[in-house]
Design a protein that fits this description.
Among the domains are: 45 residues, Single alpha-helices involved in coiled-coils or other helix-helix interfaces (Up-down Bundle); 56 residues, Zf-an1 domain. The strands form three sheets. A two-stranded antiparallel sheet has the order 1-2. A hairpin with a 4-residue loop joins strand 3 and strand 4. Helices cover 30% and strands 11% of the residues. With 179 residues, it is α+β, with helices and mostly antiparallel strands. InterPro entries: AN1-like_Znf, AN1_A20_ZnFinger, Znf_A20, Znf_AN1. This is Zinc finger A20 and AN1 domain-containing stress-associated protein 8. GO terms for molecular function: DNA binding; zinc ion binding. It comes from Davidia involucrata.
């Protein structure tokens, strides 16, 4: 039984604390780090290598071998009369093609600013996520959510009749020849 071959020989000086001072014990096989700190170090080194190679690929203009063309961003002077200009948005895993208009980005920003906090259409109480959308299209709190508690212009009777007519079509029997 030789412990030298397997590397299980205990150290004569005792256990060594991790060099990152995390409180765990390290070993010489992991550069005097605990297993978690050593694994984190290896992951950081691999990510640094991948980042360096991807930056090098972008700078050199070569793709990653998948046959995709790199997306190049730049500025273009476009007159205001132009309407359909595609804008490429690059995310971590997806590339989206969105149509853009000359004033489209301004309209989107203004719509979000005007929306503000969700409020009941009757009492103007803030409802947040607990608000209820009525069929008339307005947002209401818990006490005004029903059609009899607010002036709802939606015609429930006609909607119910249409739904029943669509769900239960009229079945007519074929006329029989009389003998």
């Amino acid at each position: 039984m030789e412990h030298d071959e397997t590397g299980c020989q205990p150290h004569p000086e005792g256990p060594i604390l991790c060099i990152n001072n995390c409180g765990f014990f390290g070993s010489a096989a992991t550069m005097n780090m605990c297993s978690k700190c050593h694994k984190d170090l290896v992951l950081k080194q691999e990510q640094a290598k991948l980042a360096a190679s991807s930056i090098e690929n972008i700078v050199n203009g070569s793709s990653s071998g998948s046959g995709k063309q790199p997306v190049v961003a730049g500025t273009v002077d476009v007159p205001v009369d132009s309407v359909d200009v595609p804008v490429y948005l690059v995310e971590a895993k997806a590339i989206a093609l969105l149509p853009s208009h000359a004033s489209g980005s301004v309209e989107i920003g203004e719509a979000k600013a005007e929306e503000g906090p969700n409020r009941c259409n009757t009492c103007k109480k803030r409802v947040g996520l607990t608000g209820f959308k009525c069929r008339c299209g307005n947002l209401f709190c818990g006490s005004h959510r029903y059609s009899d508690k607010h002036d709802c212009p939606f015609d429930y009777r006609t909607a119910a009749r249409d739904a029943l007519a669509k769900a239960n079509p009229v079945v007519k029997a074929e006329k029989l020849d009389k003998i």
